[in-house]
Structure formats: structure tokens, C-alpha cells
Amino acid sequence: MLRIDGVRKSFGDHVVLDGIDLHVKPGEVVCLIGASGSGKSTLLRCIDLLELTDDGDIHLGDLELTDPALDENRARARIAFVFQAFNLFPHLTVLQNLVLGPRRVKGIGRAEAERRARELLTRVGLADKVSAYPDSLSGGQQQRVALVRAVAMDPELLLLDEVTSALDPLLVAEVLEVVRDLKGSGMTIVMATHEMRFARESADRIVFLADGRIVESGPPEQIFTAPRDPRTRAFLERHL
Ligand code: ADP
Ligand code: MG
């Protein structure tokens, strides 16, 4: 469903992605791990068209995301991106945050968008927050709403960049629980994370990045118990 082939990206003379090849199957959950600065966010941003690649191709199904003639709106409607923080519009209620995208981008009617929003909020235990404003919610609740808002767009691909790293440790679990629930519903997810236990328990595949390259990738069991590359081993020793 997502095919990344030979992607390169530099900022000035700093090579940040140095030939990335990664294919993701429908329903697969891929966790990107690696030291800060290894290129995880840049890779996600290239997939979401927030950065232009210098070289290589990215395909989402039948759509070539790296095609210069790409209709970006068409692509964006198929991909959702949630990052660390500041995902919600502060001046809109939870419900308004949730219906905006479906109505504007997907042309869904208000009643239907609201019905779906309420259903999703119920699923993440926030049905009573429809009329609340984001700043009255905890960080964990805000991120649960942000995840629900992404899903309300019915994306083919969900990109998550360190969605728990700005949270109080006590709030991390409730957000990861939502990600797990999304995986259960068959969502295809590529996520950068420092939550190694989550990656180990919930990912289908771990991809370890260092210096803009995929050093090693495989099922969690293999990566966490028998990493082949010394750099993977060293990283895991520091982060487990
Ligand atoms: P990670 O998410 O793994 O921590 P990033 O993709 O954010 O890594 O960053 C990889 C490298 O690219 C870092 O050295 C960072 O400073 C650099 N970088 C990222 N975005 C930019 C930018 N817009 N301009 C210049 N350098 C950038
Ligand atoms: Mg990052």
C-alpha cells in the first residue's frame, strides 16, 4: 500500500535521508525507532508531502506521491498525520475540531460528520467532551481527540510522530491504547516512537534508522531479542 523506494533528502549539505526503501502492507503497523536526529520525522514528513524529496519515489496505492504533477489535495485526503503536540484548533470545541476536516475536505454533511464524531469519541472514552475546548482537556485527552480527528478523515494511512513524547508518563498509556485499538480495526500505521515496550508488543515490524538509513528491520521479536547490527544493539541497550 505504501512503497518508498530510494528516497533521499538533504538540508543544505546535510544528508538526512540517504536512500530509504520501505514497503508497508495494508493493515500493517510499522514502528520507526532510532536516535534523535536519525531522520524519522523527516521520513514521515516526506510521506505527508510536508517536505519534498530530492530523489526516489513514494507511492500510496495507485498514487505517486513524488510525482511533480500530483494533486496534493487528493493525496492529503488519503493520509492523516498526528504529531507530538498542538494538533487541535484551540478556538474550536472537540466536536467542531472533529467535523471540520470531513466536512471541508470530504464534503460530508454536518449531521453525518457529527454522528461519526460522537461515535469515535465514545470509542476512546471521551463522549462527554464534545463541547469542551482543547485547553480544558489533559494532554492525553487532547491526543486521543487528535487521533480520533485523524481517523474521522477515514485515511488509508495514518502517520504518527512521537504522539506520546510531550505527555506526562501517566497519560502515555491511554493514548497508546487508542493506537492499539486503531491497529485492531485494521488501520495501516507508520509511527515514530520512543515507546519501546509499545513497539515490541504492538508493532508488526520495527524499522531501526541511523544516519538516514534503515540499518535493520524485522519483526519485534527478532529486533528486540536478536538484533543483527551492533548499532541496533547499542541503541536498544540505551533505550530498554
Ligand atoms: P528524528 O525525527 O529522527 O529525531 P529528524 O528527521 O527530525 O530526526 O531530523 C533529522 C536531521 O535533519 C536532524 O539533524 C535535523 O536537525 C535535520 N533537519 C530536520 N528538519 C530540518 C530542516 N527543516 N532544516 C534543516 N535541517 C533539518
Ligand atoms: Mg522526530
Give me some keywords for this one.
single chain; about 240 residues; alpha/beta; six-stranded mixed β-sheet; four-stranded antiparallel β-sheet; binds adenosine-5'-diphosphate; binds magnesium ion
Question: Can you describe what's shown?
Answer:
The protein is an alpha/beta fold and 240 residues long. Helix content is 38%, strand content 25%. The strands form 2 sheets. Strands 6-7-8-3-9-10 form a 6-stranded mixed sheet, sandwiched between helices. Strands 2-1-4-5 form a 4-stranded antiparallel sheet, covered by helices on one side. The longest helix is centred in the last third of the chain and has 16 residues. 41% of the residues are buried. Magnesium ion binds next to α1. Adenosine-5'-diphosphate binds next to α1.
Integer average pLDDT: 95
Low-confidence region ranges: none
Radius of gyration: 18 Å
How would you write the strand order of the largest sheet? Answer: 6-7-8-3-9-10
Main sheet overview: 6 strands, mixed
**Structural class of the helix and strand makeup?**
alpha/beta
Distance between the termini: 31 Å
Q: Tell me how many strands there are.
A: 10
Please give the count of helices: 9
Shape: globular
Q: Helix fraction?
A: 25-40%
Small molecules bound in the structure, each named once: adenosine-5'-diphosphate, magnesium ion
> Strand content of the residues, in percent?
25-35%
The ordered string of helix (H) and strand (E) elements is: EEEHEEHEHHHEHEHEEHH
Family: Belongs to the ABC transporter superfamily.
GO molecular function, one term: ABC-type amino acid transporter activity
Membrane topology: Peripheral membrane protein
Keywords: Amino-acid transport, ATP-binding, Cell membrane, Membrane, Nucleotide-binding, Transport
